[in-house]
């Protein structure tokens, strides 16, 4: 594995590697992706192998321009109104943390989509990702660059620690600003269905679409592995409790508390002094965008420090808070 700075020369080197079927980890605004040429079945097979990912879990194809969508997806198959809705979403939210599930074109290998008739497509906002995709074949399949089931990486070092020589190159683009994965929206059903809450909030989608259904794990069986109840988990045991309930918990002596904001941490210190060995705060002033950006960062750091038990409280279920609560739930012990 070689770590690369995102110079133009290095991006050309990485793009050539992608064309040759190699694996290149790349920064996006959400999390680091493990990239492979989306049209090369052998490269795609290596992605599954490197991540230890089951073949029934399809990949997201990343493009660098809206026009490139038509190479992988067949918008006409959605009908006129459906295609117009898809175009409006791309216009409004791309580049950005929104993945669209669309009818797939035959050119996309079955490995990328787990033989589904649909394909997941996203145009990332990160300039390094876009330049790299542009210099490669224009379509890069990239799941989050973590072993299956583990926390997604938000820094190049996380990728190096987790995947090491299973990846050929890692392009270091610094820390990922959004910090949680993209929102996955299925446009092959009507009304559109959010399969995974993520970096684009539901209210912003609803402002454009009117009604949006949200996948509900209590009533529906999982359609995408991102919906599996256990995923995105740290090595430490994570217990999830309602907001404000941390003072009432029964933690191990060395457990760490993960509070939403300073106010909650202050209440915990006042109501249950010494209950936790350490108290961490996701966002001092209670901002959900900041909490999302900090979530995986904190969990990676806690795992690296060898902590074995983390107690987290739920954050407000609004804006990016939905994605934070979803990841906390999936990371938690049920
Ligand atoms: O922010 C992100 O989305 C990051 C960055 C690298 O772009 N990628 C990411 O990929 O999170 P991954 O593979 O970890 O998650 C992709 C999710 C999975 O839950 C997968 O099941 C779902 O998208 N998915 C992919 N193709 C699908 C399809 N055709 N139908 C339904 N769900 C699909
Ligand atoms: Mg993932």
Supply the key terms.
binds threonylcarbamoyladenylate; alpha/beta; Rossmann fold; 334 residues; binds magnesium ion; four-stranded parallel beta sheet; DHBP synthase
> What would CATH call the architecture of the largest domain?
Alpha-Beta Complex
Low-confidence stretches: none
Q: End-to-end distance, in Å? A: 36 Å
Structural class per helix/strand content? alpha/beta
The first-level CATH class name of the largest domain: Alpha Beta
CATH superfamily of the largest domain: DHBP synthase
> Considering DSSP H and I runs of 4 or more, what fraction of the residues is helical?
25-40%
The major β-sheet equals: 11 strands, mixed
In total, the number of strands is 15
Describe, in plain words, how this protein is organized in 3D.
- By secondary structure, this protein is an alpha/beta fold.
- It is built from eleven helices and 15 strands.
- The strands form two sheets. It has an eleven-stranded mixed beta sheet with strand order 1-8-2-3-7-4-6-5-9-10-11, with helices on both faces. A four-stranded parallel beta sheet has the order 12-15-13-14.
- The structure holds threonylcarbamoyladenylate (TXA) and magnesium ion.
- Threonylcarbamoyladenylate (TXA) binds next to β5, β6 and β10.
């Amino acid at each position: 594995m070689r770590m690369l700075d995102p110079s133009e020369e290095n991006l050309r080197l990485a793009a050539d590697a992608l064309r040759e079927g190699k694996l290149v980890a790349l920064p996006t605004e959400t999390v680091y992706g493990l990239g492979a040429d989306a049209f090369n079945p052998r490269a795609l097979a290596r992605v599954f192998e490197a991540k230890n990912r089951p073949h029934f879990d399809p990949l997201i194809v990343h493009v660098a321009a809206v026009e490139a969508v038509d190479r992988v997806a067949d918008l006409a198959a959605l009908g006129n109104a459906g295609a117009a809705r898809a175009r409006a979403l791309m216009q409004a939210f791309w580049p950005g943390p929104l993945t669209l599930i669309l009818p797939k074109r035959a050119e996309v290998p079955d490995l990328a989509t787990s033989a589904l008739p649909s394909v997941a497509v996203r145009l990332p906002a990160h300039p390094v990702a876009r330049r790299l995709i542009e210099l490669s074949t224009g379509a890069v399949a990239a799941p989050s660059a973590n072993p299956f089931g583990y926390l997604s990486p938000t820094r190049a070092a996380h990728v190096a620690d987790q995947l090491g020589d299973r990846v050929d190159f890692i392009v270091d683009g610094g820390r990922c600003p959004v910090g949680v994965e993209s929102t996955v929206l299925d446009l092959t059903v009507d009304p559109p269905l959010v399969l995974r809450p993520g970096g684009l909030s539901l209210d912003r989608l609803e402002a454009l679409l009117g009604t949006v259904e949200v996948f509900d794990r209590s009533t529906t069986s999982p359609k995408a592995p991102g919906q599996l109840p256990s995923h995105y988990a740290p090595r430490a045991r994570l217990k999830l409790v309602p907001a404000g309930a941390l003072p009432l918990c029964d933690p191990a002596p060395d457990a760490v508390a993960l509070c939403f904001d300073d106010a909650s941490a202050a209440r915990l210190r006042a109501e249950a002094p010494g209950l936790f060995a350490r108290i961490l705060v996701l966002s001092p002033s209670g901002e959900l965008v900041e909490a999302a950006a900090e979530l995986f960062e904190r969990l990676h750091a806690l795992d690296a420090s060898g902590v074995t038990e983390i107690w987290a409280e739920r954050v407000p279920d609004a804006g990016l808070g939905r994605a934070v609560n979803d990841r906390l739930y999936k990371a938690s012990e049920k």
